[in-house]
Design brief:
With 255 residues, the chain is α+β, with helices and mostly antiparallel strands. Helix content is 58%, strand content 15%. It is elongated.
Length: 255
């Protein structure tokens, strides 16, 4: 039967080996993270994992050799140092995780803020065969509401609905690109021709200039930014029109 002294010595040797396995694995993970190229995605994650496993294996070998080679007297201070390093590494990892979480939360908040801004935009269709869900629609991007004259409902009533966060972001992104184009080229679509749609909008972050454009076929072909704005607006109207409870409509003729 193993004596208490021998059992205690064996326990310290095993604990030292475990500490070195853990420290080797952590060191390998850090080395892998430092070596992985930026933006490497899953390949970079796999590389970090391989480094971590390699570090743990090296730690296991070092722990086994140290446990076998070190004398009883030398084992105690080495084990104490290993435990201190282990605790220090655990604290450092905890601090790093907290900082990364805060950085992710800050980044997410900044991203969410960039996807929201007040704006107003309206469209009027001028052709009965346009295929649009609406005859006209006006969106208030500050309150995330819209008012439209429905093309599909009998009597073509005036209907009201709301935008969700994703819809707001899609319309805003397209509106920003269209407004930026006008900021560089104010004479866009100045030529005369058949007007398919009338666009009106204001974007306070872009200077709050009220703009109005009658979209002709030539202008539509030359500037895809108009189609890029029309599509998310049509999606807002279509989604509300085809989901029960998303629209509140006046009685036909109640204008």
């Amino acid at each position: 039967m193993m004596s208490a002294s021998s059992a205690s010595l064996l326990g310290r040797r095993v604990l030292l080996a475990l500490c070195l396995v853990w420290l080797g694995g952590v060191a390998g993970l850090f080395a892998g993270a430092a070596s992985a190229p930026a933006g490497s995605g899953l390949a970079g994650s796999a590389m970090v994992l391989v480094y971590g496993i390699a570090g743990a294996v090296i730690g296991a070998i070092a722990g086994a050799l140290a446990g076998w080679k070190l004398s009883r007297e030398a084992l105690r201070p080495v084990l104490a140092a290993a435990v201190v390093l282990l605790l220090t590494a655990a604290i450092a990892i905890g601090v790093m995780v907290v900082r990364q979480q805060k950085a992710r939360e800050t980044s997410a908040a900044a991203e969410a803020a960039s996807q929201r801004a007040p704006f107003s935009v309206s469209l009027v269709t001028h052709r009965p065969d346009s295929g649009a869900t609406f005859i006209d629609i006006a969106i208030d991007g500050e309150r995330d509401t819209f008012v439209m004259t429905s093309r599909q409902k009998p009597g073509r009533p005036v209907c009201r609905g709301g935008l969700n966060q994703s819809q707001h972001a899609e319309v805003l992104d397209a509106l920003r690109r269209l407004d930026a184009m006008f900021a560089k080229e104010t004479a866009v679509c100045a030529a005369a021709g058949e007007v398919l749609l009338t666009f009106r909008w204001t974007l306070p972050e872009g200077g709050g200039i009220a703009r109005e454009v009658g979209l002709t076929p030539e202008c539509d072909q030359a500037h895809t930014e108009f189609t890029a704005l029309y599509v998310p607006i049509e999606k807002v109207a279509f989604s509300a029109e085809n989901n029960a409870g998303r629209l509140q409509c006046d009685e036909p003729g109640a204008r």
